[in-house]
Amino acid sequence: MVFKNGSFIINPSIKIDHVQLKVLNLRKSINFYQSIFGFKVLEKRSNQKTAFLSLATDYKEESSLLLVLTEVKDKNTISFREIKKQAGLYHFAILLPEIKYLSAFLRHIQNNLESQYYDGMADHGVSKSIYIHDPDFNGIEVYKDRSSTKWKWINNKVHMITEPLNVTYLLSKDIKEIWNGLPSGTKIGHVHLHVSNLIRSKKFYHDILGLYHTASYPGALFFAADSYHHHIAINTWIGTNILPANNNHYMPGLDHYAIILPNREEINRLKNRFMESKISTDETLDESDQQYPYSFYIYDPDGIKIQFLCK
């Protein structure tokens, strides 16, 4: 697939490394992610009320850390029901390596997940997806890509649809496969965000960050490095008159998502790109960032926090 882009193109090997969420009850959230997904607690810091969740017990394993949970409960905390419409997380997406695992996951949640956490299922042409949410209403997509040879590209845009998932077929496939937690090879495939202005956000993600604009949908745009269907999606489905992303420490939701680059040279190239575009970078790292010595943060036009790192 040959794309046309602006003067800057981000390194094609970038991926979503991990997502950090703010939650109201850390113990409840850990129990949810362990019982439903099989995440392992890589580390828990009681003084920070933070837990690091992974597929493995070693930071050195590729993509071992996928999710960070930080409790934000205190007297100023408000519930999800009180939160006004604002920019932030629509969902983060867990990409499974084989369809048999998606089948096993569906059978698992049918038996182990309360109905209140279900959000739906869909066939997107490029992938098959199951949607749920966690106790703090953070959206989660669990999906398996179809082979990229079956994706349809028209004028450098990938054809994505939203049609009913063939649940009967999925449940009947690999019926002996038992869900034993997230399998090796599981990744954060993409993040999907609520924004207030598609044109303004497209300028950031496409023109400045250097991602390809791979697809459009009513009220939504999709962006990716290389020829993936999308690593980042944005939408205005809750409206354009919404508040900026909440970056205080007293409300649940997205703290930030992290994009991994292959080396320090690419980190510096991207940092220079932001400087040229007059976008401030924040290199202040808290204690939880010590495993990423080369990293910085920026904020998108809606105040959504993004970390760029290399290991």
Describe the overall structure.
- With 311 residues, this protein is an alpha+beta fold.
- The protein has a single domain (15-310), classed as 2,3-Dihydroxybiphenyl 1,2-Dioxygenase, domain 1, CATH 3.10.180.10.
- It has 5 helices and 17 strands.
- It has an 8-stranded mixed β-sheet.
Q: What would the average pLDDT be, to the nearest integer?
A: 90
Shape: globular
Poorly predicted tracts of residues: none
CA(first)-CA(last) distance: 29 Å
- The CATH architecture comes to Roll
**CATH superfamily annotation:** 2,3-Dihydroxybiphenyl 1,2-Dioxygenase, domain 1
In the CATH scheme, the class would be Alpha Beta
Number of strands: 17
Radius of gyration: 19 Å
Order of helices and strands: EHEEEEHEEEEEHEHEEEEHEE
Number of helices: 5
Provide the domain count. Answer: 1
Write the layout of secondary structure elements.
Elements: E1 15-23, H1 26-37, E2 40-45, E3 50-54, E4 65-71, E5 88-95, H2 99-112, E6 118-123, E7 127-133, E8 139-145, E9 153-154, E10 157-158, H3 167-172, E11 187-194, H4 198-208, E12 212-217, E13 220-224, E14 232-235, E15 253-260, H5 264-276, E16 294-299, E17 305-310
Parallel strand pairs: 1-4, 5-8, 11-14, 15-17
Antiparallel strand pairs: 1-15, 2-3, 3-4, 5-11, 6-7, 7-8, 9-10, 12-13, 13-14, 16-17
In brief, what are we looking at here?
The protein has 311 residues and is α+β, with helices and mostly antiparallel strands. It is built from five helices and 17 strands. The chain has helices at residues 26-37, 99-112, 167-172, 198-208, 264-276; strands at 15-23, 40-45, 50-54, 65-71, 88-95, 118-123, 127-133, 139-145, 153-154, 157-158, 187-194, 212-217, 220-224, 232-235, 253-260, 294-299, 305-310.
